[in-house]
Design goal:
8-stranded mixed sheet, about 550 residues, about 25% strand, 5-stranded antiparallel sheet
Length: about 550
């Protein structure tokens, strides 16, 4: 399945950024060269997540299992370019399915483990996928039953284990032609719309992205990488593939388990990981911080919000760990302010390298990405202090939302730059900085929550007349959702518990549930009916 335009294929092939090698080639190279190196390690709390023992596998073992699973998928009738949907936490089966589905000629579409009926239906409608692999039960939900109800042919995760123990038909698998421009994954992005959108990423997209991370985080051959984000979107998949870029070991973690995280960082010979800034601060404020020994860790990437200069300086002082400030989206965009490109701590928290500046050679070796800031008239911003929407073009950017040609014009500029929906500010001639979000989203623990979706869902409660949702700061999760409600019956307004219970009952993912409720007489709107979110934020801050 090749979705990129002929123009993009020609541009990035001629520039040398896209080649003929696939992610499978990278994986098989390490399996041949370092067969006994550990490829993947389950989280120690796997028994609590899925009820079975944690395992780890060498590249030799994992390669054989991937081929066996791929053969099993062919036996099920999987066709070339067919999409397979999976919903699993960070366990080895999720990693194996990316590679096995690809080996069998298909495309994996992973869903966040928190998703329920509404999101399942959207994925089914867009992908028209037949096959689903997931858990019979997870934290009170029944994913397999939901999938079956919506028309999937649904298999439990145990079926992946069964296929992994089967025989591999290498001749049959080798006959399947996988192109480097074929789509490798179909992950999901949430923005201002109520429904998530599919983001197809090719092998070449991902190879450029994983090497971008390798360069800016100074990853080295054989490094052990701790994947703390769910391996279902840009953050998690990118972390895993960065490990594969150096033939390294992926150690899985998620959801956040602080005691386990500290144990992994101290005793599992971790070289690189990714943590949200709130977790960096939590570690530094632990009573036993002076007893922590992170001797093996060289670099930590921090994303989803801006890390503090204090935390960066403290990690460097205490453990000689470099903090890389990262920004990115599931659409393939990514910028990293690392020790090479932005060496000064005074800048790294709020200065990103302006990759693509004419005549600038970045110490990280980054080439191929082009960035520009566009004002409301579409003119480029170039003077310090100017603010504009970041437009991004590069070999890592997706081809467009899957089966949504109606979004192409609004998502891309006429010259092929992706409109990120985020405002950046010109810092100086070579640096830009994040300024604000154009999209009305709430970022809770690294997950994007559409404010519009929350509003539409809350409105389904029979006691709600009007609703508006905004983000409120949270020390642990970064942001949480606050809903303003105009009740239908002011004498008997619905409580937060009433609304949450209702939303759970209609199958809403837990991370989308509101965690604060405020009542209003009327929702403030401008003359054309748009909710005045700035007024709501000001009102909320005044009441604190």
């Amino acid at each position: 399945m090749i979705l990129h335009s002929a123009e993009a294929l020609q541009r990035y092939t001629q520039s040398g950024h896209w080649g003929q090698r696939t992610l499978l080639d990278h994986f098989h190279d390490t399996a041949r060269q370092e067969p006994e190196r550990v490829a993947v390690v389950d989280p120690a709390d796997r028994p609590d997540l899925v009820g079975t023992a944690a395992q780890k596998f060498s590249y030799r073992e994992f390669s054989a299992m991937v081929d066996a699973i791929a053969t099993g998928l062919l036996d099920l009738g999987l066709q070339k370019d067919e999409i397979v949907v999976v919903q699993l936490p960070n366990v080895w089966e999720l990693i194996a399915m990316y590679l096995a589905v690809c080996r069998a000629g298909g495309v994996l579409s992973p869903m966040p483990i928190q998703w329920r009926d509404n999101e399942f239906q959207n994925v089914k409608n867009i992908t028209q996928a037949r096959f689903f692999f997931g858990l019979p039960e997870f934290k009170g939900a029944e994913p397999l039953a939901i999938a079956q109800k919506l028309g999937f042919t649904a298999f439990p995760m145990a079926r992946i284990n069964e296929m992994a123990r089967g025989a591999a038909d290498k001749a049959r698998l080798d006959a399947i032609r996988i192109d480097a421009n074929d789509i490798f994954s179909l992950c999901w992005s949430s923005g201002t719309e109520a429904l998530s959108k599919g983001c197809p990423m090719s092998h070449n997209n991902w190879i450029f992205q994983m090497n971008l991370i390798r360069k800016t985080a100074d990853l080295r051959p054989g490094d052990r990488v701790l994947a703390t984000a769910p391996v279902v979107n840009m953050t998690g998949v990118g972390t895993w593939l960065a490990s594969m870029a150096v033939g390294g070991t992926t150690l899985l973690h998620h959801p956040l388990n602080m005691p386990l995280l500290l144990q992994q960082m101290m005793h599992e010979d971790v070289h690189f990981t990714l943590l949200v800034p709130a977790v960096l601060n939590m570690i530094l404020k632990l009573p036993q911080v002076d007893q922590l020994d992170f001797a093996s860790v060289r670099c930590i990437a921090a994303g989803s919000s801006q890390p503090s200069r204090w935390s960066m300086e403290e990690f460097k002082r205490r453990w000689n760990i470099e903090i890389v400030h990262g920004w990115g989206q599931t659409e393939g965009t990514a910028i990293f302010a690392g020790a090479k490109d932005v060496p000064e701590f005074s800048k790294r928290a709020d200065h990103f390298p302006w990759w693509g500046c004419p005549g600038v050679e970045w110490p990280s070796g980054m080439r191929g990405v082009e960035l520009k800031l566009l004002d409301e008239l579409g003119e480029e911003c170039s003077q310090p202090g100017q603010v504009g929407e970041l437009a991004y073009r590069g070999p890592n950017v997706f081809a467009g939302y899957y089966r949504r040609p109606d979004l192409a014009q609004s998502a891309f500029t006429p010259d092929g730059f992706y409109r990120t929906g985020d405002f950046f500010i010109v810092r100086d001639a070579h640096h830009i900085g994040f300024f604000d979000r154009k999209k009305d989203i709430i970022i809770r623990g690294g997950f994007n929550v559409s404010a519009a979706e929350v509003e539409n869902l809350v409105l389904t409660h029979p006691g709600v007349q009007e609703a508006a949702a905004i983000a409120v700061p949270d020390e642990i999760m970064g942001e949480k959702t606050c809903v303003f409600v105009v009740p239908k019956d002011k004498a008997k307004p619905p409580t937060l518990d009433d609304i949450v219970t209702h939303l759970k009952g209609i199958g809403v993912a837990a991370y989308k549930l509101p965690e604060r409720l405020e009542y209003l007489e009327v929702i403030p709107r401008n003359p054309v009916g748009k909710i005045l979110k700035a007024h709501l934020r000001k009102q909320l801050s005044a009441s604190v």
